[in-house]
Structures are given as structure tokens and as C-alpha cells.
Amino acid sequence: TLSDRQVAAVHRSIAKKAEFKKAQVVREATAAVVNVDKLTAAFENAATSLKWPKIRFIGFVISRASDTSRNPGALYVKADNDTYLGKIVAGRFITSRECTAEVEADVLKVLADPEASAVLFGKTVGRCGCCGRELTNQVSIDRGIGPICAVKFGW
Asked: What is the tens place of the pLDDT at every residue in 42-67?
């Protein structure tokens, strides 16, 4: 048996879960349609030689979901502090509750030309836009991506 306060807590929890599900349905229905062909091609190229490929951009990282996850084939978008911002599934960017409109606009801008955005990250931060290692070779610094990652990602 539960006390009155415990029953009230259960009801609040159920209501909160229903609210979350409703908001998720709305986010999925209003998700921006994006062309992810370039990004998908880069991840497919990298998947032949890397187990967990990632591409770094200013402010966030995009990684591929594992084949055993609940979203196989999806691309996950996480902030630099590892906060989940959303996922890209079937050409749609479905945001999380933590994703602001400004960050969503940044992600959509990056999806238009992921290679140029990864290069911008490398030139700005001084680390490879793919693996994150420090760029030490002048050619790599000028390019923003290391030569090995450029081959692996098909850039």
C-alpha cells in the first residue's frame, strides 16, 4: 500500500511522462527536413575503417548510432559538454528539449556543407575536425583536417 503522498507522486510522474511524450511527438512532427547526403556519405566512408566515427563542429559533435541501438543508422548530435541535442533520422533533424532554436539553426547550417564546417572547426580550434587531434603539420593546419582523416571521410 502507498501513502497519499506516494500516490500523488506517482500521478505527477505519470503526468510528466505523458507531457514529455506529447512534446516529443510535436518535435518529431515539426522536425526540419534536411539534405544529409554529404554527411551520410562521409560517415559511410569512415565506417569502413573506424569503429566510432565522429565529426566535430564549432559547438557540437555528430556521431553515428551503433547498429544495435534503438536508432540504427541515425546520427546523434551532442553539444561539446556531451548534452544530447537531437538526432538526424530519415533526413529530419529531431531536436531534444535541450536544443535551443539558435543551436538548431547552427546544426542546419552545418548540414548544408559538413566538410566546410569541419574545416572551419579545425582552423578555428587547431584540432582535426574529425578525430580531434592537434594539427601540427602546416598543410593540415591550413586545411583544418588531418590527411588520414581526410582520406577516411572521403574529403
From this structure: 999 998 888 899 999 999 999 999 88
pLDDT in tens, 99-142: 898 999 999 999 989 999 999 999 999 999 999 999 998 989 88
Long-range contacts of 92-95 (CB under 8 A, 24+ apart): 92/28, 92/31, 92/32, 92/33, 92/34, 93/31, 93/32, 93/34, 94/27, 94/28, 94/31, 95/27, 95/31
Long-range contacts (CB closer than 8 Å, 24 or more residues apart) made by 73-78: 75/36, 75/39, 75/40, 75/43, 77/107
- Characterize 1-37 residue by residue with b for buried, 16 or more Cβ atoms within 10 angstroms of its Cβ, and e for exposed: eeeeeeeeeeeeeeeeeeeeeeeeeebeeebbebebe
All cell numbers assigned to 93:
533533424
